[in-house]
């Protein structure tokens, strides 16, 4: 069976011509969840209570629970739609069903039932499996590759897809994004998922607490096209310019600067400048530095994210003071 992008599946949903069995996989949890929810659009809103069913498989960990869960799933997938052309069954955390952690007679029987369902799905039912990482060597995965339409979630096809990707992540964080702001992020990031993810993460951090994120916010985060000088980030922090500081940090990472060197600059800034420009925040800033240093050493998070958080904290202490850039 084909391997499709999320954009291709959305076109299928819009046309009303979907397949009977889908496997949504990939590391992009937001994309998988959003795409699975869109299958409900195949059914009129007033009829969804009868024709759209969501199954949470995460707690089906024992043999008996697995057997009962699979039996219920098979029954749901074999039920004909009511007053609608199609029935939708979405299985979340499907990896629990497809690869049981414990082998038992009950688990073996459950897998046999699943295999029978996958080999002969009902044409009037769209069964959508939303799964995390699966063992590609397993018998069940090989069967799904043969029988299901596999969807790789996270790939971006074009700018329109990039805009939708950005809007989804901003909405998932509980904020609103101006349409022009989404276009600007997509134009700058293109189809590079890594860059788009970094831009969105910095934007959310910069606009923390705002209900609406604007084009101006995006321009603040984007920063200049090239790193101006080695001290542009610390200058921006001293001036309380959070967006500029985060933009300069991104450029330093893009240029290959190690996290330890960047943390050293921030430590120098706090020790040398904060007693004068932000005396009330010296103690909290030093504690934030030590915490970040410890987190970096024990790999407690992505270095870029840890340093972004630190910069936001440091800028909170200098914001509004209008300190002049001295070097």
Spatial separation of the terminal alpha carbons: 61 Å
Tell me which CATH architecture of the largest domain applies here: 3-Layer(aba) Sandwich
The total beta strand count reads 8
Helix and strand run: EHEHHEHEHHEHEHEHHEHHHHHH
Q: What's the CATH C level of the largest domain?
A: Alpha Beta
Instruction: Write out the CATH superfamily name of the largest domain.
Output: P-loop containing nucleotide triphosphate hydrolases
Structural class: alpha/beta
Taken together, the total number of domains comes to 3
Relative strand content: 5-15%
Question: Helix content range of the residues, please?
Answer: 55-70%
Strand order of the largest sheet: 1-6-2-5-4-3
How would you describe what is shown here?
- There is one protein chain.
- The relative contact order is 0.10.
- The chain is 57% helix and 10% strand.
- It folds into 3 domains: 3-152, Rossmann fold; 157-222, Helicase, Ruva Protein, domain 3 (Orthogonal Bundle); 228-327.
- It has 327 residues and is α/β, with parallel strands linked by helices.
- The protein has helices at residues 6-15, 29-38, 48-51, 63-78, 95-98, 105-119, 139-147, 159-172, 179-189, 193-206, 215-222, 232-238, 242-254, 259-277, 282-297, 303-318, and strands at residues 3-5, 21-25, 52-56, 87-92, 125-130, 149-152, 176-177, 212-213.
């Amino acid at each position: 069976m084909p391997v499709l992008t999320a954009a291709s599946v959305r076109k299928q949903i819009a046309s009303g011509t979907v397949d009977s069995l889908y496997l949504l996989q990939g590391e992009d949890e937001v994309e998988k969840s959003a795409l699975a929810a869109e299958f409900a659009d195949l059914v009129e809103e007033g009829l969804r209570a009868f024709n759209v069913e969501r199954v949470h498989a995460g707690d089906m960990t024992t043999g008996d629970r697995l057997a009962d869960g699979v039996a219920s799933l098979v029954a749901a997938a074999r039920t004909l739609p009511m007053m609608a052309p199609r029935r939708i069954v979405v299985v979340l955390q499907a990896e629990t069903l497809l690869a049981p952690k414990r082998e038992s007679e009950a688990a073996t029987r459950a897998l046999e039932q699943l295999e029978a369902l996958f080999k002969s799905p009902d044409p009037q039912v769209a069964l959508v499996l939303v799964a995390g990482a699966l063992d590609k060597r397993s018998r069940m995965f090989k069967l799904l590759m043969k029988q299901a339409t596999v969807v790789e979630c996270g790939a971006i096809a074009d700018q329109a897809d990039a805009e939708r990707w950005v809007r989804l992540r901003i909405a998932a964080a509980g904020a609103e994004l101006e349409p022009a702001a989404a276009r600007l992020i997509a134009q700058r990031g293109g189809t590079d998922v890594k860059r788009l993810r970094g831009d969105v993460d910095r934007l959310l951090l910069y606009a923390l607490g705002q209900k609406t994120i604007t084009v101006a916010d995006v321009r603040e985060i984007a920063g200049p096209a090239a790193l101006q000088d080695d001290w542009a980030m610390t200058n921006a922090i001293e001036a309380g310019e959070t967006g500029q500081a985060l933009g300069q940090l991104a450029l330093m990472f893009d240029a290959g600067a190690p996290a330890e060197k960047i943390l050293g600059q921030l430590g120098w800034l706090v020790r040398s400048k904060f007693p004068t420009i932000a005396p009330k925040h010296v103690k909290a800033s030093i504690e934030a530095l030590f915490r970040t240093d410890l987190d970096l050493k024990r790999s407690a998070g992505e270095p870029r994210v840890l340093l972004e958080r630190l910069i936001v904290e440091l800028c909170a202490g200098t914001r509004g003071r209008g300190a002049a850039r001295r070097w």
